[in-house]
What we know:
CATH architecture: 3-Layer(aba) Sandwich
Number of domains: 1
Number of strands: 5
Shape: globular
Distance between the termini: 64 Å
Largest sheet: 5 strands, parallel
Number of helices: 7
CATH topology: Rossmann fold
Structural class: alpha/beta
Strand content: 15-25%
Radius of gyration: 16 Å
Amino acid sequence: MEKGQSMLRRQRIVLTTGAFDLLHFGHLKALEDAKKAGGRNSKLIVIVARDMTIQRRKGKKPILPEGQRRALVEALKPVDRALLGYEEMDMDRVIRKLRPDIIAVGYDQHDILDAVQDALKKYPRDVKVVQTKRYGPEELSSSSKIKRKIVEELK
């Protein structure tokens, strides 16, 4: 490779999404793995779900408001940029706007995986999809489980 040629290549973009309500160890590890999936000098962009989107999908409001969740996620070391998602979850629109090379989906995000795969059927570029694994003790592997544990401890 000639000197300077690597500078002409577009930085590899990794995209991931989530609610990120009550950040925990699993979130951090999943974001680290998503970033690693892009290789050296990749850029990790995280779409943080809107409050209304979470309420529609999960049937309850998040504990932390969307602006705070976005800021917390963006402050994490592996994250280069965190953006709030669209009010209506629209993976097709997100993929077309951000043009990722890799999309990382959480181990428990089956509906997101389906939406990504549907969107990619219409997308003209090849995009690699990776699924992150569960990290840490199972009883602390999701924000919902952590909330339940807190309630149990307070009884």
